[in-house]
Amino acid sequence: MIAKEAGEIVDNNADQGRANPSTNVRVEVEPDGTWPHSEWRRPAKEEDDMKRRSLLTGMMAATVTPVVAGCSSGTQQTETAAAAQLAASAGHITEGTAITEVFGDGQKLTAVALKYDKEIDAAKLSPSAFEVTDRTVTNVYANTEPAKAAHGVNGQYVVIELSPLDHAARLYEDSFSGSSSSSQQPSAATSSSPIPSGSPSGSPSGGGPGGGGGMQEPTLKTASAEVTQVGSVTTVDGDTYAAVSTAVATSKVDNLIVDDFQQLKYTDAGTGRSLQYNLFVPENYDKAKSYPMVLFMHDGGTASSNPLITLTQGLGAVVWASPSEQAKHECFVLAPQFTGEDDEGSDGNAPALKTIKGLIDSLADQYSIDRKRLYTTGQSGGTITSIALDFTYPDLFAASFLVAGQWDDLTQVKPLAKQKIWAVVSQGDEQAYPGMTGIMDTLEAAGAKISRAVWDGQLTPEQFAPYTARMRAKNTPVNFVALKKGTVVWSGLEENSVDNHVCTWRAAYTIEGIRDWLFEQKRR
User: Fold this and answer.
1) pTM confidence score
2) Dihedral sign, CA of 364, 357, 12, 281?
3) What residue range is the signal peptide (predicted)?
């Protein structure tokens, strides 16, 4: 626990718990204790990176005992031998790891890694050798670690990639989850490579928690899968592991990027308010260096008491902590988890805004964070809170990335005319589009130089690149992008204001050029 003058930071990681063991149909699992992914507290970080990013439990293969009746002794011997072979084959798999990734529409289970007792011959593996309950297998290869890779190599692990379009892939669910899909959207872990993704999540335009009316609190399921080796597997030694009918249940979870965040709690001494938050610290943090920090604030539809929700709802928080992004822009990432409008501050709530400001100050005091390179971004209600912070504390942020939001009282936004802003909305969003247009007109009247453009909302990250390059070349302090109506809503959704709204941030946070622009800004 670290106390600061502005408030108190409490480490939730110190509160350890016991995992609830999964119920496996055909394989017993023996837990050795940690928080499961669905719990909102996280275990303390381990020295070993794999342990830090996995939820550990033990697993043993089931032993099959044959039941024989009315058979000759020869038949009995044959069946006994077959059963022994079956049990032995099942025993070659020593553990299973579920691998998750966060997409624009939420976290999904996208792969399973099985560990064998010997190295597996990558050249002799076939996708048809494995089945995963209720899932579509898209690729199978061997690896030296339980991780996805571009190419297979001989190793003890067999990685089974799964389609993120499967209904059973979804771990994050909210009121807007449905049957939409987009083949153009990447996950945060893959960053620039288009990967199929699915259903929407978020809140309608209009701001804070509950703005859409009647929205249920989002949920996060524990990642788990059952895998059956239905074909033979060959080791590098030439041994053949025969097909088995026993399914293996995963016992570990590797939540890519999400597990790299700490879950903490801040209490502000001035307001007496507490705020849960997620913090990403650069992997090779050096207190002798100075780092920027990005503040991400979620939309009202993801208000929750579970701090992992803001990390798993979409790309807004995790994209900044991805390996590819950190390689270019090593930074801290701060992602508060608001429980409702009272602590979010999207209504201009002064105590809530002061608490958020106090949290930022406390972290800047605790770590080597450059106060001249603080950035804010948010979607919907998170953008509204960013705007409120911008005019309440005009010297706080070096730049703001505003997505799918607005502010009703235009007289209050005039201080933003002297700030660096990049805003993205959708023309089909009946509140955020006219609302942000009004803000831009107000800032322009106050002397701000603004570049405006209309872009196709379903471009890939690579296709967005020339558009952002042209806008950045104009070197204006304020940039305003409207995504063209009819190009934003994903397949399976309706062309209406709400779906335009929730699909805006699925596109916005994939645009690498805007992220690069943000880090170029520095407060004087």
Assistant:
1) 0.80
2) negative
3) none
